[in-house]
Write a structure and sequence with these properties.
- Keywords: Nucleus, Ribonucleoprotein, Ribosome biogenesis, RNA-binding, rRNA processing.
- Required for 40S ribosome biogenesis. Involved in nucleolar processing of pre-18S ribosomal RNA and ribosome assembly.
- This is KRR1 small subunit processome component.
- The chain is built from 11 helices and 9 strands.
- The protein is mainly α and about 400 residues long.
- The radius of gyration is 46 Å and the shape is flat.
- The strands form 3 sheets. Strands 1-3-2 form a 3-stranded antiparallel sheet, with helices on one face. A 3-stranded antiparallel sheet has the order 4-6-5, with helices on both faces. The protein has a 3-stranded antiparallel sheet with strand order 7-8-9, with no helix packed on it.
Length: about 400
């Protein structure tokens, strides 16, 4: 027994003394265990690190839509001056509809040309120039999410894309505040700018919304809870699964969040069995109602008491009547194409005829009035005595 114990102790010592370093360069460094060093910080580039510049010219170009031409033409001097500070040349080609960026002899940062490529991509996706220029900073990254191929139906795609915006863009603003990112939804793409962590969460929220997995409002509630839990240093090493909310949709599926913040669905067997029974009973009830309605109609028409031959004859007769109605309608439409069009009536002739009628009526009225006056004059002349007007001599 003593020999076995000695052997086990020797093996444990060998396990503790693992050979971890091989070669001349794979050796422990004095800064490996330094708690004052933050390995996640991105240091700002110093031009003194690359005094000689670039050896080769790197070029990137991208196309932009026609409706962005006027805006890019107006804001191009500002973009050109921003890139000039980093020693990057840019060119706007309105004939081809393209933007090009390339390194020069003054370029010192080797990664700035990739940032410039992201800049022209964001400009082509309708991001404003002042916002897109921020991508040149070391702390800001971007991600262009393609959502056009996630949904086949166009109407459904528009509806789900509207979920990301929300009423008066409230959902989008809430996501921007919680994730500390700039988000722009344009056409079939979503452009996002921010940190790596925020961009990862933005992509997850957008893709799950377009796939109809989870509504963005529930994602916002989860993010709000996680933001509050992050303020407590005592929960830094604990799992947050018990604090995160659970949501339930109409199909008896429960949505839960794991410790990493990703949502997963879990449907209980009882809920599935209950839903199956409800669907079965509903289908039976509907079928029974349809049968009752059919029997009532047959009783009213007298078809319920007919034999099979009479029923077949009645169906054939109804079919013939429908065919005759359709054929008559088609014939009427064909004959309508051969009828001569109605001649257009001239408004001038109508007006002239109406005016002539008015003139005739006026003439007849004037003649009648004149005849009446003449008659009155004759009557007055007959009553006058001429001797009264003769002077007595």
């Amino acid at each position: 027994m003593a020999e076995v114990e000695e052997k086990l102790n020797h093996d444990n010592q060998n396990l503790d003394k693992k050979v971890r370093y091989r070669g001349n360069h794979d050796k422990p460094k004095p800064w490996d265990d330094d708690p004052n060093i933050d390995r996640w910080t991105i240091e700002k580039f110093d031009p003194a690190w690359n005094p000689t510049g670039m050896l080769e010219v790197s070029t990137f170009s991208t196309l932009f839509p026609k409706y962005r031409e006027k805006y890019l033409q107006d804001s191009w001097p500002r973009i050109e001056s921003a890139l000039k500070q980093y020693g990057v040349a840019c060119k706007l080609n309105l004939v081809e509809g393209s933007m090009t960026v390339s390194t020069t002899r003054k370029t010192r940062d080797p990664y700035i040309v990739v940032k410039a490529r992201d800049l022209i991509k964001l400009l082509s996706r309708s991001v404003p120039a002042p916002q897109a220029i921020k991508i040149l900073e070391d702390e800001v990254q971007c991600d262009i999410i393609k959502i056009g191929n996630l949904v086949r139906n166009k109407a459904r795609f528009v509806k789900r894309r509207q979920r990301l915006l929300g009423p008066n863009s409230s959902t989008l603003k809430a996501m921007e505040i919680l994730l500390d990112c700039y988000i722009l939804i344009q056409g079939s793409t979503v452009a996002a700018m921010g940190s790596f962590k925020g961009l990862k969460q933005v992509r997850r929220v957008v893709e799950e919304c377009l796939r109809n997995e989870i509504h963005p409002v529930y994602q916002i509630k989860n993010l709000m809870m996680r933001k509050e839990l992050a303020k407590d240093p005592a929960l830094a090493t604990e799992s947050w699964a018990r604090f995160l909310p659970t949501f339930r949709n109409n199909s008896s599926i429960y949505f839960k969040f794991d410790s990493s913040g990703r949502m997963f669905s879990k449907s209980s067997p009882k809920a599935r069995r209950r839903s199956h029974i409800q669907h079965y009973l509903l289908n039976r009830r509907l079928a029974r109602q349809e049968n009752l309605l059919l029997v009532d109609k047959q009783l009213e028409s007298g078809e319920y008491f007919m034999n099979d031959q009479k029923k077949a004859d009645k169906k054939w007769q109804e079919k013939q009547e429908k065919q005759s109605e359709k054929s008559a309608e088609k014939k009427r439409k064909r004959d309508a194409s051969f009828l001569p069009p109605e001649e257009p009536t001239q408004n001038n002739n109508l007006n002239k005829s109406e005016e002539s009628k008015k003139d005739i009526t006026e003439l007849t009225q004037s003649l009648k009035s004149k005849t009446k006056e003449l008659k009155k004059q004759k009557k007055t002349q007959e009553k006058v005595n001429a001797e009264e007007y003769i002077a007595v001599a």
